[in-house]
Amino acid sequence: MKHVTSRGGRTKSALWTILGILAELMLTAAAICALYIAWQMWWTGVQSEHNQIETRQSVSWSDPGKSGNVTVAKAQQGDPPVQPQSATEGELIAQIYVPRFGSQWQRNLVEGTDLTQLNKHGLGHYTDSQMPGQVGNFAFAGHRNGYGQPLGDVDKLQEGDPIIVRTQDYWYVYHYTSYKIVLPTQTEVVAANPENPGATPTKRMLTMTTCEPKYSTPTHRWISYAEFSYWAKVSDGIPQELASQNANGTVKFVNNEQSSFLSSIDTLKPWIFGALAAYVIIFISAAVAWRWPYLADVRAGRRKKADFSLYGSLVRLQPGVLPIRLLLVLLLVFAAAASCFEWLFPWAASTIPMLQEMSNYTAI
């Protein structure tokens, strides 16, 4: 009877061990999925912000909002100058401001709409469309979700909302008019005359394209239209749409280009290697100071050997007392998660078909 009971107990223990391992594997898979969502919806935006700041710092554009005496630029009469006349792939064309998206919202606009530009540099200008201030259709694309979701709030735009374009020397102020939802094949929305494709354009229009729906595989495109209102000189100050005034009449630029600490991080490699280096140092120190007290207790019969589990075994195999062992495991987990952000998830988003469709918006 005693032998039968022991066998039944071992069978039951083995079953619970297997179930426990399966549960750990499922929790690990869920954690990886959660990390991927965090990477897609948050970390890609941090990287995009970093790249955009670097791009702005690389050009010699003045910053009218940082001067001691900020003024409202006078609206100019006559046809606006066209700037730039042309641009190379990836070159900074303008900075875009949309107050409806938030007082601190601004994005770079670079030449080109391939994934390199849209994923890393904010907004991308359709190379065949017109430039700011030009008669025709000044069109650009941007992500609606992930990569900083520059056009994530296009559905909040209201008729008359300003969309401000700043080039090196000029401000161009457009006002939002309407939107439509189209198929990706309907490329006429970025034609020089989207209202009557093929006809000679007579208006100065602005078109923004992004994906629809926002949170799933984009099957359509959300098209936002705006029309030109006026232009001003950067040397004269800032547009009234980007100005605020205090009780003393002092004019301030509402967008002060606040950036997060994380946007200063170019790569996670130093953090990954730093965590691994800290792990090695603490591991060796703990092994010298305490050795493996848990394993020693098991071998000496002072403690019952625990059932096998993935994470439990990982903790128990570390040297030192329990707080040190937990710290060592946390360092390994951090290094693994950061490695996913740095290498695994970018590879998956560009290689696995389903993730490609979900992660990478293709312009019209």
TrEMBL record:
Annotated transmembrane regions: 21-43, 271-294, 326-345
Record Pfam families: Sortase
Keywords: Hydrolase, Membrane, Transmembrane, Transmembrane helix
Region (Disordered): 56-86
Superkingdom of source: Bacteria
InterPro entries for the chain: Sortase, Sortase_Class_E, Sortase_dom-sf, Sortase_E
Active site: H143, C211
MF terms in GO: hydrolase activity
Name of the protein in its database record: Sortase
